[in-house]
Amino acid sequence: MEILFQEDSSITMSSDTDVSLSSYDEGQGSKLIRKAREAPFVPIGMAGFAAIVAYGLYKLKSRGNTKMSVHLIHMRVAAQGFVVGAMTLGMGYSMYQEFWAKPKP
């Protein structure tokens, strides 16, 4: 850490690791909105995962004679499949935007 003297006789301290404080100024809600605009399929994947888990918990009572472990494995596979599908669509969407939707210079 070093001490810097400025012309107006104020003293500022500088460290060797410069950390941008702009990310700390951003609130949780605005950060989530910004990230959702950058990658729109991430919130879709999260919502689908939550919906499948909620549906699985709802159907837990009426699973019949199916073992609990089999029911939970099916719900896990469905939730993971939805998230992987959303990630794949998101990657395809970002590739489309970057390579094909850009106007040619």
TrEMBL record:
Keyword flag Transmembrane: yes
Main location: mitochondrion
Name of the protein this chain belongs to: HIG1 domain family member 1A, mitochondrial isoform X1
Region feature Disordered, mapped onto this chain: 1-28
Classification via PANTHER family: HIG1 DOMAIN FAMILY MEMBER 1A, MITOCHONDRIAL (PTHR12297:SF5), HYPOXIA-INDUCBILE GENE 1 HIG1 -RELATED (PTHR12297)
Biased composition (Polar residues): 7-25
One annotated GO biological process: negative regulation of apoptotic process
Keywords: Membrane, Transmembrane, Transmembrane helix
UniProt xrefs under Pfam families: HIG_1_N
Domain of life of the organism encoding this protein: Eukaryota
Residue ranges of the TM segments: 39-58, 78-96
Ranges of residues in domain HIG1: 13-105
Entries under Gene3D superfamilies matching the protein: 6.10.140.1320
PROSITE patterns: HIG1
Any Gene Ontology CC annotation: mitochondrial membrane
Intracellular or extracellular location(s): Mitochondrion membrane
